[in-house]
Amino acid sequence: MSLQGVAARGRIFALKQMTDQCIITRESGRVLNTTTGQNTPGSITIYTGICRVRPQPGIATRDVRAGEQVIGTHAPVVSVPVEVVNVASGDIVTVTVSLDPGLIGRRMLVQVVAEGSQITARRLLVQEMSTG
Fold first, then answer.
1. Number of Cα atoms under 13 Å in the Cβ half of residue 42
2. Integer Cα distance of 92 and 110 in angstroms
3. Could you write out the DSSP letters of every residue in 12-74?
């Protein structure tokens, strides 16, 4: 089998694992909120569709104390179809549908967008955004 064929099969497999859905947005200037009279950040939608959210093994972002034990939390990775080419560092991923109800509504800031000629999904290394 050719390298292109292997990559194509890998991409099909990766798509089958994308059981979540997300929206990726990018801040774009300021917009007047007619209710409050305040200028607020505006945004444009970069992507809406399927994705996969999972922890990145081996990359601890911070330590959290659970009782008497310290546990390293892991930076999430969001995978989208490889055809999604317009995502950039600084974009915001919001999970809208997930098999894990704890992910729904989570917002994550894109840090790195993986690229490569033989990738099976576009992997986004993200950082959790505070909810406050």
1. 8
2. 6
3. HHHHHT--EEEEEEEEEEEEE-TTT--EEEEEEEEEEEEEEEEEEEEEEEEEEEETTEEEEEE
Place of tokens 């955004």: 129
Enumerate residues 6+ apart whose C-beta is below 8 A from 34.
none
* β partners of residue 53: 78
CA neighbor of 12 nearest in space, from 63, 112, 115, 83: 83
Report the DSSP pairing between strands 20-32 and 39-66: antiparallel
Q: pTM of the predicted model, to two decimals?
A: 0.78
- Reported as a single tens digit per residue, the pLDDT across 77-128 is 999 999 999 999 999 999 999 999 999 999 999 999 999 888 999 999 999 8
pLDDT tens figures, 16-43 = 999 999 999 998 888 778 888 888 878 8
DSSP-assigned beta bridge partners for residue 66: 69
